[in-house]
From TrEMBL:
Organismal lineage: Bacteria, Bacillati, Actinomycetota, Actinomycetes, Pseudonocardiales
Transmembrane segments: none
InterPro entries attached to this UniProt entry: AB_hydrolase_fold, Lipase_secreted
Top-level taxonomic group: Bacteria
Protein name according to UniProt: Lipase family protein
Pfam families for the chain: LIP
Length: 399
C-alpha cells in the first residue's frame, strides 16, 4: 500500500486513459487550460538577441517551493533541431542551505507528456513543483533541480515533441541556466532524470552532452518508461485513445519540424479525418482538457493512420532519427520499467535495454512488477536515489 499517492502519478494514471477531470487534476491544471494567455514572463523578445545556449534571458522567484528550497522560473537560450537560437522556459529549484565547496550537482529533469502547446507547460501551472517526480527527495539529497518546459511550452517556439535533438538540448540548457543563478549554488556536475517523453529527452541529452555541453560533467542518465522505441510505441498504442492522442502530438510536431522534407504532410500518413483533427488536438493539454481530447480522439480509434509510420517514408526515417540508442551512452544508464505498463510496454523497453547493452553501455535495468506507466517513476525512487549518488553497475548479461 502507498501511504501517500504522488500527485503526478495520480494525474498521469487518469490522463493516460483520458478519464474525466478530478478535483486534483483541475488544481494542477489551473493555468494550463481554458483561455490561457502567456504572461509577460513568457514573451520572447522579437528579435531574440543572440545568446549562448543556456544563457538566461530572464528569471523570477517562485513562491510555494518545497520546505528548505528556493525556486525560480527561468527563460533561457537553447537550440532547435536545425541549430536556430530559441527561447525555452522552465523552473529551477535549489536547497536554501549553504552550498558545499565546489557547488551542488544538478539533476536536469525531463517531464512526461502534459501536452505540446504553450499553455501546457508545467511552469505555468498552479503548482509546478508537484510535476517533478522525486523533487522532495532530490532537494533533501542536496541537488539543484532544473526542470525544462521544452520548446513551445510556456514560451512560444518550434515544436519539440519526441524530437530528440531539440528536446535534449532543452534539458542540457536548463542545467546551464541553473548555473546562471548564483543563489542556486550549482556546480558543473550533472545527472539526467526523465519519465516517458522526458526519458526520451534525457536519453538524447545524455548522448549529446559531451559534444553540445562539454563544460558539464555528466555522471549518469536515469529514465523511467522512456519513449525509446518510437516505431514500436506508435504501432502498439495507436489503436487506443491514449495512442491517438500521443500520435497527434508527435505527427503534428514532425510535420512542423520537418516541413521542408518532401512527403511530410499529415495527409501522407493519416486518414482524412485524422489529418483534419490533429492540429486541433495539438492545441489541447492532457491536464485540464482531457474531456475535449477524448471527444476528438475516441472516434478516430482504428481510423487514425492509413499506413504504418515505421515503414512509410519519409516518416520511417524521421522516427529512426528521433529514436535514441543508436550510439553508446557514454555514462552509466538507469532504466526503470513498470511490468503493468500498457503505454510504454515492457517488451519495448527490454528491447531498448538489450540494444544499449550490445553497444557496451553500463545499464542498470529495473522492472517493477504490477506497476503501470503513471507510478513507475515514483516507485523507482528507492533504487534510483542511491544510484544517483554513485552511478554505475550493470545488469547486462556478461560477455
Amino acid at each position: 500500500m502507498r501511504a501517500q499517492v504522488p500527485l503526478l502519478a495520480t494525474v498521469l494514471t487518469a490522463l493516460l486513459v483520458l478519464a474525466g477531470c478530478s478535483t486534483v487534476e483541475r488544481r494542477v491544471g489551473e493555468g494550463l487550460a481554458g483561455e490561457w494567455t502567456a504572461g509577460p514572463f513568457y514573451e520572447v523578445p522579437n528579435p531574440l538577441p543572440p545568446g549562448a545556449p543556456g544563457t538566461l534571458i530572464r528569471s523570477e522567484r517562485l513562491l510555494g517551493a518545497p520546505n528548505g528550497a528556493a525556486a525560480w522560473r527561468v527563460l533561457y537560450h537553447s537550440r532547435d533541431d536545425a541549430g536556430a537560437d530559441i527561447a525555452v522556459s522552465g523552473t529551477v529549484i535549489a536547497p536554501t542551505a549553504p552550498a558545499p565547496p565546489g557547488g551542488r550537482t544538478i539533476v536536469s529533469w525531463g517531464h512526461p507528456t502534459t501536452g505540446v502547446a504553450p499553455r501546457c507547460a508545467p511552469s505555468v501551472g498552479a503548482d509546478p513543483f508537484d510535476l517533478v517526480e522525486g523533487l522532495t527527495d532530490l532537494i533533501g539529497a542536496g541537488y539543484v533541480v532544473a526542470a525544462t518546459d521544452y520548446s513551445n511550452m510556456g514560451a512560444p517556439g518550434p515544436q519539440t515533441y519526441l524530437i530528440g535533438t531539440t528536446s535534449g538540448n532543452s534539458v542540457l540548457d536548463a542545467a546551464r541556466a541553473a548555473r546562471g543563478l548564483p543563489e542556486a549554488g550549482a556546480s558543473n556536475g550533472l545527472l539526467l532524470w526523465g519519465h516517458s517523453q522526458g526519458g526520451h529527452a534525457a536519453l538524447f541529452a545524455g548522448e549529446r552532452a559531451a559534444s553540445y555541453a562539454p563544460e558539464l560533467a555528466l555522471k549518469g542518465v536515469a529514465v523511467a518508461a522512456p519513449a525509446a522505441e518510437l516505431g514500436a510505441l506508435l504501432d502498439a498504442d495507436i489503436g487506443d485513445v491514449s495512442g491517438v492522442t500521443i500520435g497527434s502530438y508527435a505527427f503534428n510536431a514532425y510535420a512542423s519540424a520537418y516541413a521542408s522534407r518532401p512527403g511530410v504532410a499529415l495527409d501522407s500518413i493519416l486518414t482524412p479525418a485524422g489529418a483534419a483533427a490533429t492540429p486541433g488536438m495539438a492545441q489541447l493539454c492532457l491536464i485540464g482538457q482531457n474531456d475535449q481530447l477524448h471527444a476528438i480522439a475516441d472516434p478516430l480509434i482504428g481510423h487514425y493512420v492509413k499506413s504504418d509510420p515505421a515503414t512509410t517514408e519519409p516518416w520511417a526515417t524521421i522516427l529512426r532519427e528521433n529514436t535514441p540508442g543508436s550510439v553508446r551512452m557514454p555514462v552509466p544508464l538507469f532504466v526503470a520499467q513498470g511490468g503493468a505498463d500498457t503505454l510504454v510496454r515492457p517488451e519495448t523497453t527490454a528491447a531498448f535495454v538489450q540494444r544499449e547493452c550490445s553497444l557496451g553501455t553500463a545499464v542498470t535495468s529495473l522492472v517493477i512488477p504490477g506497476v503501470d506507466h503513471g507510478f513507475v517513476a515514483d516507485d523507482a525512487l528507492s533504487k534510483l536515489l542511491p544510484w544517483l549518488a554513485a552511478p554505475g553497475g550493470s545488469t547486462c548479461p556478461a560477455g
